[in-house]
Design a protein that fits this description.
Elements (H helix, E strand, L loop, with lengths): L1 E6 L6 H12 L7 E6 L6 H11 L3 E6 L5 H11 L4 E4 L11 H9 L4 E9 L4 H18 L7 E8 H8 L8 H8 L3 E8 L11 H15 L2 H29 L7 H34 L6 E5 L2 H13 L1
Parallel strand pairs: 1-2, 1-4, 2-3, 5-7
Antiparallel strand pairs: 3-8, 4-6, 5-6
Helix pairs in contact: 5-8, 9-10
Length: 318
Protein backbone atom coordinates (compact mmCIF):
# COMPACT_ATOMS: atom_id res chain seq x y z
CA UNK A 1 0.00 0.00 0.00
CA UNK A 2 1.15 3.54 -0.79
CA UNK A 3 0.03 6.75 0.91
CA UNK A 4 0.35 10.07 -0.94
CA UNK A 5 0.54 13.15 1.31
CA UNK A 6 1.28 16.61 -0.16
CA UNK A 7 2.95 19.00 2.30
CA UNK A 8 3.25 22.77 2.12
CA UNK A 9 4.54 24.60 5.21
CA UNK A 10 3.32 21.84 7.54
CA UNK A 11 6.14 21.74 10.12
CA UNK A 12 3.68 22.17 13.01
CA UNK A 13 1.58 19.14 12.14
CA UNK A 14 4.23 16.73 10.82
CA UNK A 15 5.27 15.20 14.19
CA UNK A 16 1.67 14.20 14.98
CA UNK A 17 1.16 12.98 11.42
CA UNK A 18 4.25 10.81 11.74
CA UNK A 19 3.04 9.33 15.04
CA UNK A 20 -0.32 8.37 13.57
CA UNK A 21 1.30 6.91 10.47
CA UNK A 22 3.57 4.78 12.65
CA UNK A 23 0.49 3.45 14.46
CA UNK A 24 -1.14 2.67 11.10
CA UNK A 25 1.90 0.89 9.64
CA UNK A 26 2.27 -1.21 12.80
CA UNK A 27 -1.17 -2.76 12.19
CA UNK A 28 -0.18 -4.52 8.95
CA UNK A 29 2.40 -7.09 7.90
CA UNK A 30 2.40 -6.17 4.18
CA UNK A 31 4.80 -3.46 2.90
CA UNK A 32 3.61 0.14 3.18
CA UNK A 33 5.21 3.28 1.78
CA UNK A 34 4.28 6.85 2.70
CA UNK A 35 5.20 9.36 -0.01
CA UNK A 36 5.54 12.85 1.51
CA UNK A 37 5.74 15.52 -1.20
CA UNK A 38 7.23 18.86 -0.22
CA UNK A 39 5.52 21.33 -2.56
CA UNK A 40 8.08 24.13 -2.28
CA UNK A 41 7.69 24.76 1.45
CA UNK A 42 9.41 27.77 3.02
CA UNK A 43 9.61 26.43 6.58
CA UNK A 44 11.27 23.31 8.01
CA UNK A 45 8.97 20.85 6.25
CA UNK A 46 11.68 19.41 4.00
CA UNK A 47 14.32 18.84 6.73
CA UNK A 48 11.66 17.17 8.86
CA UNK A 49 10.43 14.73 6.21
CA UNK A 50 14.04 13.98 5.24
CA UNK A 51 14.80 13.01 8.84
CA UNK A 52 11.64 10.87 8.89
CA UNK A 53 12.75 9.12 5.69
CA UNK A 54 16.11 8.28 7.30
CA UNK A 55 14.64 7.12 10.62
CA UNK A 56 11.46 5.35 9.44
CA UNK A 57 11.83 2.69 6.80
CA UNK A 58 8.37 3.30 5.35
CA UNK A 59 8.70 7.00 4.36
CA UNK A 60 9.74 8.33 0.97
CA UNK A 61 10.51 12.06 0.81
CA UNK A 62 10.05 13.91 -2.48
CA UNK A 63 10.89 17.58 -2.96
CA UNK A 64 9.50 19.53 -5.90
CA UNK A 65 11.68 22.18 -7.52
CA UNK A 66 9.16 24.88 -6.56
CA UNK A 67 5.56 25.26 -5.48
CA UNK A 68 3.47 23.66 -8.24
CA UNK A 69 0.18 23.55 -6.31
CA UNK A 70 -1.74 20.96 -4.34
CA UNK A 71 -3.29 19.11 -7.29
CA UNK A 72 0.04 18.79 -9.10
CA UNK A 73 1.74 17.62 -5.89
CA UNK A 74 -0.86 14.85 -5.67
CA UNK A 75 -0.05 13.90 -9.27
CA UNK A 76 3.67 13.75 -8.45
CA UNK A 77 2.93 11.53 -5.48
CA UNK A 78 0.86 9.15 -7.60
CA UNK A 79 3.69 8.93 -10.12
CA UNK A 80 6.09 7.98 -7.31
CA UNK A 81 3.95 5.19 -5.85
CA UNK A 82 4.41 1.46 -6.41
CA UNK A 83 1.71 0.02 -4.17
CA UNK A 84 -1.20 -2.13 -5.28
CA UNK A 85 -3.45 0.26 -3.35
CA UNK A 86 -2.91 4.03 -3.11
CA UNK A 87 -4.46 6.40 -0.57
CA UNK A 88 -4.45 10.20 -0.98
CA UNK A 89 -4.80 12.33 2.15
CA UNK A 90 -3.83 15.79 3.37
CA UNK A 91 -1.10 16.42 5.91
CA UNK A 92 -3.29 18.56 8.20
CA UNK A 93 -4.99 15.44 9.68
CA UNK A 94 -8.44 16.59 8.58
CA UNK A 95 -8.32 13.35 6.58
CA UNK A 96 -7.79 10.90 9.48
CA UNK A 97 -5.38 8.03 8.70
CA UNK A 98 -7.43 5.96 11.15
CA UNK A 99 -10.13 5.60 8.45
CA UNK A 100 -7.79 3.77 6.06
CA UNK A 101 -8.57 0.30 7.53
CA UNK A 102 -12.26 0.85 6.74
CA UNK A 103 -11.33 1.88 3.19
CA UNK A 104 -9.25 -1.27 2.81
CA UNK A 105 -12.24 -3.38 3.84
CA UNK A 106 -14.36 -1.79 1.10
CA UNK A 107 -11.52 -2.32 -1.39
CA UNK A 108 -11.33 -6.00 -0.43
CA UNK A 109 -15.06 -6.18 -1.18
CA UNK A 110 -14.34 -5.26 -4.80
CA UNK A 111 -14.43 -1.46 -4.96
CA UNK A 112 -11.77 0.27 -7.07
CA UNK A 113 -12.20 3.68 -5.42
CA UNK A 114 -13.33 4.45 -1.87
CA UNK A 115 -13.69 8.21 -1.28
CA UNK A 116 -14.22 10.07 1.96
CA UNK A 117 -17.51 11.97 2.06
CA UNK A 118 -17.89 14.61 4.78
CA UNK A 119 -20.98 14.55 6.99
CA UNK A 120 -19.77 17.46 9.12
CA UNK A 121 -17.03 20.03 8.44
CA UNK A 122 -15.71 21.21 11.79
CA UNK A 123 -13.60 24.33 12.09
CA UNK A 124 -14.65 25.88 8.76
CA UNK A 125 -16.34 29.22 8.26
CA UNK A 126 -19.93 29.52 7.04
CA UNK A 127 -18.73 31.23 3.85
CA UNK A 128 -16.41 28.32 2.99
CA UNK A 129 -19.14 25.77 3.70
CA UNK A 130 -21.56 27.70 1.50
CA UNK A 131 -18.98 28.00 -1.29
CA UNK A 132 -18.37 24.23 -1.20
CA UNK A 133 -22.13 23.54 -1.09
CA UNK A 134 -22.75 25.76 -4.11
CA UNK A 135 -19.73 24.63 -6.13
CA UNK A 136 -20.55 20.92 -6.27
CA UNK A 137 -24.12 21.59 -7.34
CA UNK A 138 -23.18 24.18 -9.97
CA UNK A 139 -20.39 21.96 -11.31
CA UNK A 140 -22.75 19.02 -11.66
CA UNK A 141 -25.23 21.16 -13.61
CA UNK A 142 -22.80 22.83 -16.03
CA UNK A 143 -20.28 20.00 -16.51
CA UNK A 144 -22.71 17.09 -16.71
CA UNK A 145 -20.28 15.07 -14.58
CA UNK A 146 -21.40 13.85 -11.19
CA UNK A 147 -18.65 14.47 -8.67
CA UNK A 148 -19.73 13.17 -5.25
CA UNK A 149 -20.84 16.12 -3.14
CA UNK A 150 -18.98 17.22 -0.03
CA UNK A 151 -15.83 15.29 -0.92
CA UNK A 152 -12.19 16.26 -1.15
CA UNK A 153 -9.16 14.38 -2.44
CA UNK A 154 -9.19 11.90 0.48
CA UNK A 155 -9.65 8.53 -1.21
CA UNK A 156 -8.30 5.02 -1.69
CA UNK A 157 -7.69 3.80 -5.24
CA UNK A 158 -6.82 0.44 -6.69
CA UNK A 159 -3.74 0.33 -8.94
CA UNK A 160 -6.05 -0.07 -11.94
CA UNK A 161 -7.76 3.25 -11.14
CA UNK A 162 -4.40 4.92 -10.42
CA UNK A 163 -3.06 3.87 -13.83
CA UNK A 164 -6.15 5.28 -15.50
CA UNK A 165 -5.76 8.56 -13.59
CA UNK A 166 -2.06 8.79 -14.50
CA UNK A 167 -2.97 8.65 -18.20
CA UNK A 168 -4.73 12.04 -17.85
CA UNK A 169 -1.98 14.66 -18.11
CA UNK A 170 -3.80 17.99 -18.50
CA UNK A 171 -2.08 20.90 -16.80
CA UNK A 172 -5.05 22.45 -14.98
CA UNK A 173 -5.98 19.57 -12.75
CA UNK A 174 -9.05 18.82 -10.66
CA UNK A 175 -8.19 15.42 -9.24
CA UNK A 176 -11.53 14.54 -7.64
CA UNK A 177 -13.30 15.35 -10.92
CA UNK A 178 -10.78 13.27 -12.88
CA UNK A 179 -11.33 10.32 -10.55
CA UNK A 180 -15.08 10.59 -11.17
CA UNK A 181 -14.45 10.80 -14.92
CA UNK A 182 -12.45 7.55 -15.10
CA UNK A 183 -15.37 5.65 -13.57
CA UNK A 184 -14.68 2.17 -12.15
CA UNK A 185 -16.49 0.79 -9.10
CA UNK A 186 -16.63 3.56 -6.48
CA UNK A 187 -18.06 3.82 -2.97
CA UNK A 188 -18.41 6.57 -0.37
CA UNK A 189 -17.13 6.35 3.19
CA UNK A 190 -18.88 8.97 5.29
CA UNK A 191 -17.04 10.63 8.16
CA UNK A 192 -17.02 13.79 10.25
CA UNK A 193 -14.13 15.98 9.17
CA UNK A 194 -12.24 17.27 12.22
CA UNK A 195 -10.61 20.66 12.59
CA UNK A 196 -7.12 21.22 11.31
CA UNK A 197 -4.66 19.81 13.89
CA UNK A 198 -2.23 22.76 13.69
CA UNK A 199 -1.19 25.60 11.43
CA UNK A 200 -3.36 27.53 9.01
CA UNK A 201 -5.28 26.44 5.94
CA UNK A 202 -3.38 26.36 2.65
CA UNK A 203 -6.61 26.76 0.69
CA UNK A 204 -7.97 30.29 1.32
CA UNK A 205 -10.92 31.59 -0.67
CA UNK A 206 -8.75 32.83 -3.55
CA UNK A 207 -7.17 29.41 -4.15
CA UNK A 208 -10.54 27.70 -3.79
CA UNK A 209 -11.98 30.05 -6.41
CA UNK A 210 -9.14 29.33 -8.84
CA UNK A 211 -9.61 25.60 -8.29
CA UNK A 212 -13.32 25.99 -9.07
CA UNK A 213 -12.48 27.85 -12.30
CA UNK A 214 -9.99 25.14 -13.27
CA UNK A 215 -12.59 22.47 -12.53
CA UNK A 216 -15.29 24.05 -14.68
CA UNK A 217 -13.06 24.99 -17.62
CA UNK A 218 -11.39 21.54 -17.59
CA UNK A 219 -14.61 19.57 -17.85
CA UNK A 220 -17.01 21.71 -19.87
CA UNK A 221 -17.23 24.48 -22.44
CA UNK A 222 -20.49 25.72 -20.89
CA UNK A 223 -18.96 29.19 -20.15
CA UNK A 224 -18.40 29.60 -23.90
CA UNK A 225 -22.05 28.84 -24.48
CA UNK A 226 -22.98 31.38 -21.81
CA UNK A 227 -20.82 33.92 -23.65
CA UNK A 228 -22.66 33.12 -26.89
CA UNK A 229 -26.05 33.43 -25.22
CA UNK A 230 -24.96 36.73 -23.67
CA UNK A 231 -23.89 38.05 -27.06
CA UNK A 232 -27.18 37.01 -28.71
CA UNK A 233 -29.25 38.51 -25.88
CA UNK A 234 -27.34 41.80 -26.11
CA UNK A 235 -27.81 41.92 -29.89
CA UNK A 236 -31.55 41.33 -29.51
CA UNK A 237 -31.79 44.14 -26.95
CA UNK A 238 -29.80 46.44 -29.23
CA UNK A 239 -32.14 45.77 -32.17
CA UNK A 240 -35.17 46.34 -29.95
CA UNK A 241 -33.65 49.59 -28.76
CA UNK A 242 -33.06 50.74 -32.35
CA UNK A 243 -36.63 49.81 -33.27
CA UNK A 244 -38.02 51.81 -30.33
CA UNK A 245 -35.89 54.83 -31.26
CA UNK A 246 -37.10 54.72 -34.89
CA UNK A 247 -40.75 54.47 -33.81
CA UNK A 248 -40.33 57.41 -31.45
CA UNK A 249 -38.58 59.35 -34.22
CA UNK A 250 -41.52 58.79 -36.60
CA UNK A 251 -43.91 59.91 -33.84
CA UNK A 252 -41.88 63.08 -33.44
CA UNK A 253 -40.67 62.27 -29.96
CA UNK A 254 -37.04 62.99 -29.21
CA UNK A 255 -35.17 62.41 -25.94
CA UNK A 256 -31.77 63.78 -24.96
CA UNK A 257 -29.50 60.85 -25.79
CA UNK A 258 -26.41 61.28 -23.61
CA UNK A 259 -27.53 59.04 -20.74
CA UNK A 260 -28.94 56.30 -22.95
CA UNK A 261 -25.90 56.33 -25.23
CA UNK A 262 -23.49 56.05 -22.31
CA UNK A 263 -25.55 53.23 -20.78
CA UNK A 264 -25.55 51.36 -24.09
CA UNK A 265 -21.80 51.81 -24.57
CA UNK A 266 -21.03 50.62 -21.06
CA UNK A 267 -23.36 47.64 -21.40
CA UNK A 268 -21.91 46.55 -24.74
CA UNK A 269 -18.37 47.16 -23.53
CA UNK A 270 -18.96 45.08 -20.43
CA UNK A 271 -20.47 42.21 -22.44
CA UNK A 272 -17.59 42.26 -24.92
CA UNK A 273 -14.95 42.25 -22.21
CA UNK A 274 -16.73 39.40 -20.40
CA UNK A 275 -16.86 37.33 -23.56
CA UNK A 276 -13.20 38.07 -24.31
CA UNK A 277 -12.26 37.08 -20.76
CA UNK A 278 -14.03 33.72 -21.08
CA UNK A 279 -12.40 33.09 -24.45
CA UNK A 280 -9.05 34.10 -22.97
CA UNK A 281 -9.37 31.49 -20.22
CA UNK A 282 -9.78 28.70 -22.77
CA UNK A 283 -7.17 30.05 -25.21
CA UNK A 284 -4.67 30.35 -22.34
CA UNK A 285 -5.26 26.73 -21.39
CA UNK A 286 -4.80 25.63 -25.00
CA UNK A 287 -1.53 27.61 -25.12
CA UNK A 288 -0.21 26.04 -21.90
CA UNK A 289 -1.20 22.53 -22.94
CA UNK A 290 0.42 23.07 -26.36
CA UNK A 291 3.74 23.97 -24.75
CA UNK A 292 3.93 20.36 -23.54
CA UNK A 293 6.00 21.23 -20.51
CA UNK A 294 6.23 18.65 -17.70
CA UNK A 295 3.59 18.99 -15.01
CA UNK A 296 6.26 19.30 -12.33
CA UNK A 297 10.00 19.03 -11.70
CA UNK A 298 11.45 16.93 -8.87
CA UNK A 299 14.41 18.39 -6.99
CA UNK A 300 15.26 15.53 -4.59
CA UNK A 301 14.03 12.08 -3.60
CA UNK A 302 15.03 10.22 -0.43
CA UNK A 303 14.03 6.70 0.53
CA UNK A 304 12.55 3.76 -1.41
CA UNK A 305 10.45 1.85 1.15
CA UNK A 306 8.81 -0.73 -1.11
CA UNK A 307 12.02 -1.47 -3.02
CA UNK A 308 13.85 -2.00 0.28
CA UNK A 309 11.03 -4.25 1.53
CA UNK A 310 11.10 -6.35 -1.64
CA UNK A 311 14.88 -6.59 -1.46
CA UNK A 312 14.65 -7.79 2.15
CA UNK A 313 12.11 -10.44 1.18
CA UNK A 314 14.34 -11.69 -1.64
CA UNK A 315 17.27 -12.00 0.77
CA UNK A 316 15.14 -14.01 3.23
CA UNK A 317 13.94 -16.27 0.43
CA UNK A 318 17.50 -16.92 -0.74
Amino acid sequence: MSLVIPCYNEEEVLPELRRRLQDLVAQYSFPIEVVLIDDGSKDNTWPLICSYAREDGFIKAVRLARNFGHQTAITCGLDQTKGEVVVILDADLQDPPELIPEMLKDWSDGYDVVYGQRRQRHGESLSKKFFAFAFYRIFEKVAGLKVPRDTGDFRLMDRRAVNALQSLRERHRFVRGMVSWIGHHQKALQYDRPERFAGVTKYPFRKSLFLAIDAITSFTYAPLRVASYLGVATSVLAFLYIFVILVLKVMGINFPGYTSIMASILLLGGVQLTVLGILGEYVGRIFEQGQNRPLYLVDQVQGEPLENANHGRQQKAS
